[in-house]
Amino acid sequence: MKILVLPRETKELIPVEVTVDGVPTTTGVKFAIVPPDQRPTTWVSATVIDSQTLVQVESLTTGEYTVYAQVTNGTELAVLKAGILLIT
Predict the structure, then answer these.
(1) In the chain, what are the domain boundaries?
(2) What is the pLDDT of residues 12-58, one digit of tens each?
(3) Per the count of CB atoms within 10 A, which of 14, 40, 67, 86 is most buried?
(4) What separation in angstroms does the CA of 56 have from each of 23, 40, 73?
């Protein structure tokens, strides 16, 4: 799992590769960024630019966060750990 270190002042779109059954996907993707001891409850639609899935990172305080991806495909709803953010 990829770990990304960012300063707390950052406000940017971060690329996150989301795969389902080993196949990259950009359709039906949402993200949640939460502290490591919490489960995702609020989801935000991914931004897709040039076939790349991006999550907006902003307004996070210093600490560690888990990035979750939620992929809706027909009747299936996959929730995947997509990465870790370390905010300094």
Answers:
(1) 3-87
(2) 999 999 988 888 999 999 999 999 999 999 999 999 999 999 999 99
(3) 67
(4) 23, 16, 22
